[in-house]
Write a sequence for this structure.
């Protein structure tokens, strides 16, 4: 076979391959919000962009809220992923890079971009609804030293309360540990002591799932009341000056 014949055969194969690939691409399902995008937002973004936190004024719990945008304007420019603020932030082109807990996988970014470039269509009626977030509870196999995630001084300067993993530890002014009690689920992210030093409020819970607040009598350290109802972990607490009300977020 001559060189010209070889080149002619290769050209014919390329044409056949191109013709075969074209219908395959045409048959690929169009990226959908409910199927391809919502699960990514639910698992990686909604912990900070929910009705309780609404970081940056942006809600990511539904298609409608995503398309409303946030404090910096529209998050999505339909048909132009390269100009969409959501994409610019998850790619690190605009600071801070999102999500704060770690970069998205390349295939996750590609799915979001494909949906936007395809027109950012709303969920179709036949798309399966997004299931609730399922976050497995993984316990360490070996002893670990939990980080301190919250602190609160006694107004009278007698002790310091520290929030750990599902525990509240107490130390005196010398740094000696004087005791510990069980805290809310997951990390104890918020602590507050009433101005009269009688009550301690501790907040925690599982991100994007549920929050819990415990109120304890500081003299006995016994649990007085448990408050539920948050749809996310509790990150901040504050007593009113008279101790009759408690603000949480």
């Amino acid at each position: 076979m001559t060189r010209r014949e070889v080149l002619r055969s290769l050209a014919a194969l390329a044409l056949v391959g191109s013709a075969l690939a074209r219908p395959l691409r045409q048959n690929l399902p169009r990226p959908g919000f409910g199927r391809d995008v919502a699960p990514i937002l639910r698992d990686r973004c909604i912990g900070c962009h929910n009705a309780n936190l609404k970081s940056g004024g942006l809600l990511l719990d539904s298609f409608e809220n995503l398309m409303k945008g946030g404090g910096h304007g529209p998050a999505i420019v339909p048909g132009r992923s390269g100009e969409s603020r959501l994409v610019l932030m998850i790619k690190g082109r605009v600071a801070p890079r999102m999500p704060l807990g770690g970069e998205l996988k390349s295939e996750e970014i590609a799915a979001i971009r494909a949906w936007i470039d395809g027109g950012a269509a709303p969920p179709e009626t036949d798309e399966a609804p997004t299931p609730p977030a399922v976050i497995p509870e993984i316990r360490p196999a070996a002893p670990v030293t939990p980080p301190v995630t919250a602190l609160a001084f006694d107004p009278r300067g007698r002790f310091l309360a520290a929030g750990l993993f599902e525990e509240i530890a107490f130390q005196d002014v010398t740094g000696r540990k004087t005791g510990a009690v069980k805290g809310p689920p997951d990390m104890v992210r918020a602590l507050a002591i009433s101005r009269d030093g009688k009550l301690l409020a501790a907040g925690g819970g599982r991100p994007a799932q549920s929050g819990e607040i415990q109120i304890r009598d500081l003299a006995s350290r016994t649990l007085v009341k448990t408050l539920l109802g948050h749809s996310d972990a509790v990150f901040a607490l504050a007593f009113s000056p008279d101790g009759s009300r408690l603000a949480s977020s």
Summary: DSSP finds five helices and ten strands in the chain. The radius of gyration is 26 Å.
